[in-house]
Amino acid sequence: MKLFTYHIDGSLHTGVRTDAGLLSLSATAANMPGSSVEVNMMDIVAGGQAALENVSTFVNKAIQDDKAVFLSEAEVVWGPCIPQPHKIICVGLNYRRHADETNAPYPETPILFNKFDNTLAGHLEDIPVPTVTEKLDYEVELTIVIGKNTKNVSEEEALDHVFGYCAANDLSARDLQMKTPQWLLGKTCDKFSPIGPDVVTADEVGNPQKLALKTIVNGEERQNSNTSDMIFSCKEIVSYISKHMTLVPGDIILTGTPEGVVLGSPEDEQVYLKPGDEVTVSIEKLGSLTNTFVAETE
Question: Does residue 298 register a pLDDT over 80?
Answer without folding.
Answer: no
